[in-house]
Write a structure and sequence with these properties.
This protein is α+β, with helices and mostly antiparallel strands. It is about 35% helix and about 25% strand. Helix 2 packs across helix 3.
Length: about 220
């Protein structure tokens, strides 16, 4: 849909008249009418106000011209999972699980933001990816190009030891940098790491039959 149709539909869904919407975003009723007739498009500051009012991204208001991803965990951003600032405006760089009310929520991300911000964090991710590439010498396995922030609760597998016991190496309540690499014959390789260690494991579909390939302190 075009912007004119999106604004008209969102306004109607919220039960607002053109006059009421105009008052909420500090424009005239005639301005709203021109948007909905396709004569003009709201400016960036007004788009921010409309985004807050309808709780949808500017990307959506403009007809979803591009796919957006959370800069922290890498998940695709859709309306309903986009983060908010303390003032209620949407922050379209992050999902609501990584950033909420003006604060980063994941420990590994917060740690690097405190140390030196996003640039330092990206440098560390690139360094960790190269360390994984130096260890992963498996034929036909793709290179590690990017790492996402992952919750330990989702990637903390149980590995069976030779004595029959099972053990976990990660903390369910911590977050790690990791990814999944597609191998051959239905085998996947999971990688996870942080400041202290690197972990590589293999598993079959749906995480079945996990095996620890390597656990190395940094």
């Amino acid at each position: 849909m075009e912007t004119k149709e999106i604004i008209r539909e969102l306004r109607a869904k919220k039960g607002l008249s053109q006059e009421e919407l105009a008052q909420r975003v500090y424009v005239t009723r005639q301005a709203v009418s021109r948007w909905e007739n396709g004569e003009t498009v709201p400016g960036i500051e007004t788009l921010k106000l409309l985004s807050k009012e309808f709780d949808v991204s500017i990307n959506t208001l403009l007809g979803a011209p591009k796919t957006q991803y959370c800069e922290c965990c890498g998940m695709q951003l859709e309306d309903g999972c986009i983060s908010h600032e303390k003032n209620g405006f949407l922050n379209e760089e992050y999902c609501k699980w990584c950033y909420a009310d003006g604060e980063y929520t994941l420990d590994v991300w917060k740690k690097y933001v405190e140390i030196g911000g996003k640039e330092k964090f990206e440098q560390f991710k690139a360094q960790l990816a190269e360390e994984f590439n130096a260890l992963l010498r498996i034929e036909n396995l793709p290179r590690v190009e990017n790492l996402n922030v992952l919750s330990g609760a989702f990637i903390n597998m149980e590995y069976r030891l030779p004595n029959g016991q099972t053990v976990k190496f990660l903390d369910d309540h911590a977050t790690y940098l990791g990814s999944q690499l597609e191998g051959e014959a239905g085998i996947c390789y999971g990688i996870a790491g942080n400041m202290d260690f690197l972990l590589i494991c293999s598993y079959e579909e749906n995480g079945e039959n996990p095996e620890l390939v390597l656990y190395k302190k940094r």
